[in-house]
Amino acid sequence: MRNWVVLAALTAGAGLAAGASTGGGSKMLLYVDNSLGDDLSVIDLASMKVTNTIVVGREPHGLCAPADGRRLFVTIESERNLKVIDTATGKIVQTIAVGGRPNECASTPDGRYIGVPIRDGNKVEIVDTHAGKVVKELPVKVPHNCYNAGSNRKMYVSSMGGHEIDEIDLGTMTYSARVPVGGIPRPYAVTGDGKTVYSAVTGLHGFVVADVGEQKVTGRVELPAAPPLDCPLEVNTPTHGLALTPDGRELWVTSLADGGVYRYDVEKKTTSAMMRVGKCPNWIAFSPDGKYGVVSNSDDNDCSILDAASGREAARVKVGKGPKRVLVVKVPAA
Fold first, then answer.
1. Most C-beta atoms within 10 A of its C-beta, which of 6, 18, 241, 260?
2. Are 137 and 117 in contact (CB under 8 A)?
3. Kind plus residue range of the DSSP H or E element containing 19
4. How far apart are alpha carbons 318 and 325 in whole angstroms?
């Protein structure tokens, strides 16, 4: 009996050790799509270094992921498809055909549905990941960016041709609101309660504020004057990066011409001094824990990693050619 107890204790100890080695902490991985190339750069935020390069196909455009961080979805314009990457291995595990040039995608938190704007098809397609195919098409004039604000029920798509942000009810697969933004919408963000839209618009060095329920613009914020825009990847778009912090208290906004980022206090409605980054800052994303804000510098072929608390640049990391969309994913241990 004594020998059996000792053996059982040793076996249990070995099991705990094995569990510790395979079930360790998750990683915060920053994915950067290199729009003038055919790959993604993967940066580990712990080391601030590129740890992997994933070849996905020419002209990667959109990045999105569900809340569990186990998969990454990438839209590929040249191939007219959506690729699914296993974040633990960095391998492409599935390719889903779509009906044209896909732009910025959005995933529901549970990963069931992916919204894919089809830029040359005047439609947004809803992909059911369980079925592995498009299950719904909705008409939209010149769609560009899909967005999810943390809901498994609602999703949004911008209509550059209609000058509006359209809300999609995924339960009925129909539009539930159309929110005009007073111009051609570029990147935008929606508050977690689904009540407010912040949108960059073509020609504005700043952004507009719109009420989803009232379906109208309620405010306009202009950033300080900037020098003439000289960013080949973005024409007539002085502001192309815009994102809410995870706690919803701040909106970070890029100034392409200035090479910097402004912080807008949502409650106080005040704008901070500019944080300097690289040339032609294109897109902004936050780590899920809110510790870092990341910015792609499309003309410098690098990415700025900003400490969100201090606003200082913690690192500048070289990536591929023409970086645009960025996304930080909390990847669980294998």
1. 241
2. no
3. helix 2-22
4. 15
Expressed as residue numbers, the domain containing 284 is 26-331
Instruction: Write out the DSSP string of 291-308.
Output: SEEEEEETTTTEEEEEET
Alpha-carbon span 12 to 6, nearest angstrom:
10
Note whether residue 5 is domain-resident. no
Which one-letter amino acid corresponds to residue 212?
A: V
The two three-digit tokens of residue 78, written as one number:
């040249």
Question: Which two three-digit tokens encode residue 35?
Answer: 């729009």
User: How many domains does the chain divide into?
Assistant: 1
Residue 126 CA to residue 322 CA, distance in Å, equals 28
- Mapped onto helix, strand or coil, the DSSP state of residue 154 is strand
The tokens for 291 are 């510790």
Q: In this structure, is residue 7 part of a structural domain? A: no
Question: What does the alpha-carbon distance between residue 156 and residue 38 come to, in Å, rounded to a whole number?
Answer: 27
pTM of the model: 0.92
Please report, as a single letter, which amino acid is at residue 238: P
20 part of a folded domain: no
Q: Which CATH number do you get for residue 209?
A: 2.130.10.10
- What does the pLDDT read at residue 295? 98
pLDDT single digits (tens) 187-239:
999 999 999 999 999 999 999 999 999 999 999 999 999 999 999 999 999 99
Identify the helix (H) or strand (E) that includes residue 30. Answer: strand 27-34
Q: Which helix (H) or strand (E) holds 145?
A: strand 143-147
Cα–Cα distances in Å, from 114 out to 84, 222, 311? 11, 33, 32
Angle at 174 between CA 201 and CA 189, to 5 degrees: 30
